[in-house]
Write a structure and sequence with these properties.
Distance between the termini: 6 Å
Length: 346
Amino acid sequence: MTLIHWLFGFWAVSAIAFVVFERFVPGERVWEPDEPWESVIVYGLLALFSPLIIIYFLFIVVIECSRIGWRWLISKLVWLEDDKRNTLIQLAEPWEPWEIDFTNPFIKSVRDLFLGPSVHRDDATADAVQAAICAGNALAIEIRADLEEAAVSAIMDITPALDTPLSVIDGGCGSTEPGSLLKAACVGTVAAVGIRELHKSRLAGSQTEVLHSMLARALTAWEVGQENIGHAPNPWLGNTHVCWAPGTLVGAKKSVANKLMEAFIMTGERTPEENAPYFARTIVSSLGFAVNPRTTNPQRSSILHQLGLGGGGAVLPESAINTVAERILEVDLFWPSYLEGKEVIW
């Protein structure tokens, strides 16, 4: 809750308190039973334009408008380097002195008591990341077993491909853990499936894009390290304002999970049944397996090219690809059950 919400609430409470306590003050009453409508107007004017309310509204104008103007001015300084621009933006943060900290358990419990169950977006992001990691690891185990079974039928040795580490990505995190590429791809797929459902259902309301961006940063940090996640792109390209997609990062090390999240959002209005084969082939191609040329997708090829990955190795049976797609369709959606009956706060 920002300063302007806090002060608006104060105005509402003080206006009501003024009307209530006026009834207990001895002497002539504002309320005249013979002139009810005139009394209502007088009450309203006194509540709206009392000196205390005017002072606080001026305070809102000075603080809020100055902060917004400061941020707008900084965004226009396109010649500044990103780190210097971010430093200037941080100077505006102390201008919001009374922002309520809903990460405090006591404050949150009081808020929930009066306004209903809620979840802070920081907590929601952390829970979503943990759920994606757990479900992604489970998905990787299932896909590995399915591909190994298909390889046995085709008399192929695919163990080296399944053990491909993230270090094969030029500009990635360099992890040499066997099988880390498959795990990261599965975690990204699980997160992408969930975030697309979040966009579709609008369960988080105005916080949907914010949660998307926070989840993208958190998953990228999980894969490449917090110090390597980069930053949000400059909203100004020359004199043109650009609305970047949620989760867009620049200056970061390459992340399989983040690229798959971007790709899943860009699949438009496709149904889950249409998306699953696409991502199944992307995961299989990232491990070095060849994909049937008739099913090659330009978007998938672009993702693999950006990561320095691609097929060209052994060709898996089409039934193996279908099995991986079925596994993706079986992924449990995190957000619908997690946000049921809750409001996302910040």
